[in-house]
């Protein structure tokens, strides 16, 4: 029965590729979410630079370390990136909630006007690099890319076939990139403030998830817990916006009644 | 020197923004989570609670500030 081992090996290869594909897809979707969120709210130029530099850095790290990649303290990296992302995401979410409840717009009208005028003046020389967009995109892609490399090395070497695992990860990259290209168009029609509100929710959720993982937490449900965190932060943001909005309305009514 | 100053300013703005208390709260919450995990408690619930608390506290300060 000479065919049986070959068929078994073929099936085994497919399973290795499928495992690498699925695990890599999860990480790549996380990176894609961050890139789309930052690119659509802060512009694509600096975001693209961040992605490109992260991919180049990843290529260098993978080429230099190879299988020794698993020696990188990924938890330390997760906790640092997660904490920075959480602090940045919370700032963003706080501003978005204040804006959505009408509080920021009321107090910031002059600043917004000055900002608009400044932007209009700068339109001619809009080549300024946005380091915020660059940094967030870089971190998201580098961290998730490193995790994909870990998956390829660990799944591949445990099954004795890194090439097949790399093929699975490459297929995931193509599928996620295509999905990203399709999702980008409908997302670009979402109003800017709503988009920023959503970005605040996403950055905060990923920050909670990654910093938790880095701190050694074992999330209930593993990677799927990110959905639970996302739902929790979304509900929290909407409840706080609702509360602030009604408090704001109450203040306006009280002012009208007094005058 | 100016480049170093700009670099440090960028990271301050990136991490602390306009509410440094919130950023410090994040560091405390993540450290507390790591400490609990190191002592055998799987404190996955701590960060979501901390985020809710920090956000509420920061918003309360932001809404009260103009009235003072």
Describe the structure in your own words.
The complex is a heterodimer of chains A (259) and B (68). By secondary structure, chain A is mainly α. Chain A has eight helices and no strands. In chain A, helix 1 packs antiparallel against helix 5 (131-158). The longest helix of chain A has 40 residues, at 3-42. The relative contact order of chain A is 0.18. The longest helix of chain B has 19 residues, at 20-38. Chain B is built from three helices and no strands. The interface between A and B is medium-sized, with 38 and 31 residues.
Strand content of chain B: under 5%
The chain-level mean pLDDT of chain A equals 79
Low-confidence stretches of chain A: 1-6, 106-110
**Termini gap of chain A:** 95 Å
Alpha carbon gyration radius of chain A: 22 Å
User: What is the number of helical segments of chain B per DSSP (H or I, 4+ residues)?
Assistant: 3
Largest sheet of chain B: none
Structural class of chain B: mainly alpha
Which percent range fits the helix content of chain B? over 70%
How many strands, what sense, and barrel or not for the largest sheet of chain A? none
Portion in strands of chain A: under 5%
The SS-based structural class of chain A is mainly alpha
Contiguous runs where pLDDT drops below 50 for at least 5 residues of chain B: none
| SS element count, helices of chain A | 8
Oligomer: heterodimer
Give the SSE order of chain B as H and E letters: HHH
Tell me, rounded to a whole number, the average pLDDT of chain B.
87
Order of helices and strands of chain A: HHHHHHHH
Care to count the β-strands of chain A? 0
Indicate the percent of residues in helices of chain A. over 70%
């Amino acid at each position: 029965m000479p065919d049986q081992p070959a068929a078994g090996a073929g099936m085994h290869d497919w399973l290795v590729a499928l495992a690498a594909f699925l695990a890599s897809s999860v990480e790549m979707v996380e990176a894609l979410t961050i890139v789309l969120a930052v690119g659509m709210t802060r512009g694509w130029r600096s975001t693209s630079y961040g992605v490109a530099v992260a991919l180049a850095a990843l290529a260098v790290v993978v080429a230099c370390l190879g299988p020794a990649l698993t020696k990188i303290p990924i938890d330390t990296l997760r906790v640092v990136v997660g904490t920075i992302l959480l602090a940045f995401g919370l700032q963003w979410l706080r501003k978005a909630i204040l804006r959505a409840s009408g509080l920021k717009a009321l107090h910031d009208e002059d600043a917004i006007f000055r900002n608009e005028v400044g932007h209009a003046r700068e339109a001619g020389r809009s080549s300024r690099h946005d380091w915020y967009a660059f940094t967030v995109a870089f971190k998201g892609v580098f961290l998730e890319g490193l995790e994909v490399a870990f998956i390829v090395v660990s799944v591949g070497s445990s099954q004795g076939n890194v090439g097949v695992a790399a093929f699975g990860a490459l297929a995931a990259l193509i599928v996620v990139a295509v999905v990203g290209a399709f999702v980008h168009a409908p997302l670009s029609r979402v109003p800017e403030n709503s988009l920023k509100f959503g970005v605040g929710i996403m950055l905060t959720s990923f920050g909670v998830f990654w910093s938790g993982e880095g701190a050694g937490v074992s999330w209930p449900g593993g990677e799927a817990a990110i959905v639970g965190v996302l739902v929790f932060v979304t509900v929290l943001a909407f409840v706080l916006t609702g509360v602030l909005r009604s408090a704001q309305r109450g203040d306006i009514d009280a002012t009208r009644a007094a005058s | 020197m100016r480049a170093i100053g700009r670099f440090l300013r960028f990271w301050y703005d990136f991490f602390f923004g306009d509410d440094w208390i919130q950023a410090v709260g994040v560091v405390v919450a993540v450290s507390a989570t790591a400490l609990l995990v190191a002592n055998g408690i799987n404190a996955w619930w701590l960060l979501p609670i901390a985020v809710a608390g920090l956000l509420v506290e920061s918003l309360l300060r932001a809404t009260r500030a103009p009235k003072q």
